[in-house]
Amino acid sequence: MNATILLVGTRKGLWVGRSDERRTAWTWSGPHFDMMEVYSCMVDVRDGRPRLYAGASSPWTGPQIQISDDLGETWRATSGAHFPGDLDASVERVWQLVAGSEPGVVFAGTEPGAVFRSTDGGESFALERGLWEHPHRQEWGEGFGGQAFHTILPHPTDPDSVTVAISTGGCYQTADGGASWEPRNVGVRAEFLPEGEQYPEYGQCVHKIARHPDRPERLFLQNHGGVYRSDDHAATWTSIADGLPADFGFPIVVHPHEPETVYVFPINGGDRRYPPEAHAKVWRSRDAGESWQPLDRGLPDDFYVAVMRDALCVDTHDQPGIYLGARNGAVWGSPDGGETWDQVVANLPDVMAVRAAAY
Questions:
Q1: What's the structural domain count of the chain?
Q2: Within a 13 Å sphere around the CA of 9, how many CA atoms are in the beta-carbon half?
Q3: Which residues of the chain are under the pLDDT cut of 50?
Q4: What is the pLDDT of residues 312-354, one digit of tens each?
């Protein structure tokens, strides 16, 4: 059986876990980047052995993109993502790191809301100017966590097509390699707007979008109130929230081998940002959102914290593991697709991102 690597980004550093059986026999190293905010991390297995990435930020040294080629034993900073000198802007945090569909391509999503692209494996990044200069940008707002591109979905077979999402601004998509971008929010409700204005062209507070590489035209979206599916590459969206205990949440994840299987972690909206009845449950649909089932065997009954947009993930084993990191510093793992759960680490700082891969 292949081993598993698990990255846990927190508000005070990064932890790296490894396991051969994905239950309780985990070994951990960390904190890497002690006392730095790690909002994004990535395991890139395109070349066989994993390359690890981390987006770390501190108020003294600013944001950094770090790379490790030895499973976290050593790290080195790249030149990072920076705005060109002719722009009056500076990167505050790196919220997203994603592998592109072409060799060597890596995307970074940042705060303030911008997307950067690397063609040399993350060593250097260039601003996607077509998105930064979009006429809607001046009207994009900030969620409570800040304004950032937290979702970047390169099309698995068409390198000119990329789908992104920002809070608050909504979903945008390019079909020409970033030269132009158009909003893709038809059917997504902005519940915080006045009645009669809740379906704007843009301005939605999208929390996360996911899809399966074998069916790229189908996407799943967790909104600030609302869970949606698109069957036409984000041209239109349809609600799939019926059957869930709440339609508010942050993460949404697709099974790595089953395009119809999707996972969410519903929480209460408003000021009560914890699950209904304070019971931790991952909800799974095996029919693309037509019906939902709770998965909670081994998860805590008393759970008064949230799970952030990048703190739910899956690995790529034949029987995939699912990992859930919470704002109380605990991480749970399920090696059987969510049927049963074990706590794999506890007492970390506030968890912002988890990423896992088989190697």
A1: 1
A2: 32
A3: none
A4: 999 999 999 999 999 999 999 999 999 999 999 999 999 999 9
Domain with residue 316: its CATH number is: 2.130.10.10
Rounded Cα distance between 200 and 134, Å, is 17
What tokens does 65 get? 């993109």
Q: What is the DSSP string of 260-307?
A: T-EEEEEE--TT--S-GGG---EEEESSTTSS-EEE-TTS-S---S--
What's the pLDDT score for residue 1?
55
Residue 233's identity, in one-letter code, is H
Whether the Cβ atoms of residue 313 and residue 273 lie closer than 8 Å to each other: no
Give strand pairing partners of 41: 54
How confident is the model at residue 140, as a pLDDT?
A: 96
Can you tell me the distance from the alpha carbon of 139 to that of 237, in angstroms, rounded to the nearest whole number? 22
Quick one: pLDDT at residue 23?
86
CA dist., res. 38 & res. 338, Å (int)? 26
Q: Each residue of 268-302: b (16+ CB within 10 Å) or e?
A: beeeebbbeeeebbbbbbeebbeebebbbeebbee
Nearest alpha carbon to residue 69 among 55, 52, 56: 52
Host H or E run for residue 129: helix 129-132
pLDDT of 47: 85
**Domain residues for 320?**
4-358
pLDDT at 76: 97
